[in-house]
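To: structure subgroup
Subject: Chain for Friday's discussion

All,

I'm putting the inputs and outputs inline so they're searchable in the archive.
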Amino acid sequence: MNPMRELHGLRADALPEDVLTSTQPLLLRGMVAHWPITQAALQPGLQGGRAAADYLRGFGAESAVGVLLGQPEIGGRFFYNDTLTGLNFRREGGRLGRVLDALMQLAAVPPGSPPPPALYVGSTSVDTCLPGFRAANDLSDPAFQARDPLVSIWLGNRTRIAAHFDLPDNIACVVAGRRRFTLFPPEAVGDLYVGPLDLTPAGQAISLVDMAAPDFERHPRFANALAVAQVAEMGPGDAIFIPSLWWHQVEALEPFNVLVNYWWRQSPEQMDSPMATLLHALLTLRELPPAQREAWRALFNHYVFDATADTAAHIPPHARSVLAPMDATGAQALRQQLIKRLTR
């Protein structure tokens, strides 16, 4: 694995454009160290965790959150059951204050005690769960805020989230505890042994490799993925930029961990998720004879991957229809065509 490129001295109110549009991961050391929640968490030992938890309670102790609960034997790894027919954890609802109380109780268990259960609150809207939190804890750069990012909070004890990718670009800020991010480029997909596309722990397909104990006899190509992996270990105040479609495994390394992240897309608002195209391609293309698949590859290259202004230049502008530059009206018309085809 390779160390990630680090940047120092960046300000949350003045994010450089080349950071926000980077095609490579970036470790942004200390960028949110000034946030009040980070300052609370920087107190020594468990005192920092308690201070950060108390800080969060001040904004949303009664807020409803979704909680993932795993038995001690999963070792914090939220994953599938042994037969890949279900998951190895259960979902419950709760109040943020009670979840924080439970995390503090688990964190206070003396060393040498039996392993605790895994407790994890995944992506939860900050504006809904913690109203007022962003007034003092935010990436406040006006140009960045104009991208209208989705801001979420994540918290839990020692947990492991398998390598997966997200469609949006992502800045993830560690504000309490420590986390290790291991990133793989999109082209490493064939070496990650990705699981089912439809049954997933949280909506995204995940790698089936246990990075804590990889089985190279079962997953030999994973060695190739590790050769191109980038790793970053982060403490309170550090942030990481994860480009769209980069696979990332996330490990929480302390008994109490809090992360705030920002997702945004560098694409027109009317664009749908390309994952819909992938799933439709499985339905329509994968089982074709090889020669036909190659013919469709040529069509996709011509109209999508290698398309230029010349692709439809021979057609009068008024007659280009779906080949014209896509706007919201054109996107809606095309969406209706697809719905008709799918419901025939």
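Points worth raising on Friday:
The mean pLDDT is 95.
The first strand starts at residue 2 and ends at 3.

D.
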